[in-house]
What we know:
By secondary structure, the protein is of the alpha/beta class.
Amino acid sequence: MNNPPDLDDRVYERFQLLVNAPALFNAIVTAAELDVFRFLSEHPNSNFEDIREFVGIPAHQLRVLLHAVCSTELACKEDGKYSNSAVAERLLASDGPDSWRHILIGWKDIYYPAFSHTTSALRAGTNTALASLPGDEPTLYQRLAHDPRLEAVLHASMRAFTLQCMGGLLDNGDLSSVRHLLDVGGGDGITATQLTQRYPELRVTILDMPSVTKLAESKLTADVGDRVLLQPGDLFDDEFPRGVDAILFSHVLEIFSAEQIRTLLAKAFEVLPSGGRIFLYGFNVSDDERSGVFSARLSLYLNVLATGQGMAYPAKDYESWMREAGCNSIKTFSQLQFEHGLIVGTKE
């Protein structure tokens, strides 16, 4: 059917994609879980029977799956032969720690089932989708401590996405003069590992929930030695360790309310020496809050499932909160990859 003449073609095409996206997204993840993209990477121009023999699902169901994947153009069919597109080859064929495969599985298993609760969650003003998970804690991150398998899925997803967007922090956040960094909410240690590899003299202390620091302990490699330390604790109830000369909040402040962010920044400022710096890295929505698909998805996920609050705040909000905490010198790096920004404040 042709587009109605009074509709914007670009927006209408995006509408058609969006309303079909949930089904197609799950087809892509299924193909990744069945290792279709890896198989096509190793065996380009494979025929249908080759793929069927590898994946081991009924022929009709494979036909449906391949049709869905080809409709997204992630796989290509030419003269009865199937191959990866360049995008699938780069993002989905590998099973490495930075593969989008891990990101998408996390979104499928944890994020996207929750979005059916969006209306009820926004009406209630709280993360009603959390009720599907065991426990009575108020956040997803706390409840996942009851389900180690699902917690590992989430951290594998976050680890891969962190690696995908690490360049914005590494290329713009100069830590060459930092000797001891506190990584608040540092997760499974991937950011700390990347930073210590870039800066051989740097030591990093990760402060996070006990179940998360236990996961980090299993992930840290021998080459970091004693340069990455783990401190299990509560970000709000426990004091921040002293003796650090910089503090990093990477992909963590987004999950909290403005009041909670002010509290964390004040705690960070209080333990830093004169000249110490606070690094804020993560999603930044555009200042007019009209665009940004990554930041919009994250903000909905936080409010529907993760914490019931928070969002990808504009950089101007973070700058204001850093000034309130006492930082006089603030530098912002905006429009980084995946709608990220880096804000650096100095205690003078």
